[in-house]
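General statements about sequence and structure are easier to judge against a single worked case. When preparing material for the folding task, we compiled for one chain both its residues and its backbone structure tokens. The amino acid sequence and the backbone structure tokens for this protein are reproduced below:
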Amino acid sequence: MTTTAIATNTSGNPETPDIPRHFLCPITLNLMDDPVVAQDGESYERRAMEAWMHNNPTSPLHHTAITDTRLYPNRALKVLIKAYTSAHPKVKQPDPEMDAIIAAQVKPKPKPTSQPRQPTGGNYYAQVLGTFTLSGGSFVRVVNG
């Protein structure tokens, strides 16, 4: 059995189909030319991820620490992208130079600096829950005590 991935076309123009989202770098949102896999298991454009890691110690998607800066080629994805661009010549070709420039300008989302405040006194769980739903859809406000 042969499985074929089909790109959806939301542009309405049959000559310019939408690019499958897994062909786009999550940092630059551009078609990847040299896809690599980072420690977080996600694929990125090599130059964009290198620039990202130079400025940020966290994953662009998961915001977890990146302790291993090695990048591994995603050869299967590269072959799929090349086949897709060959079959769709109107699709704009990747521009790794521009991707690196964009990635160097991207800043990570700031992490929240404050910790959630733990209520004092009374029933801790009632304070945390605040309101809850009973069967039948009515709401009850829990009061400390």
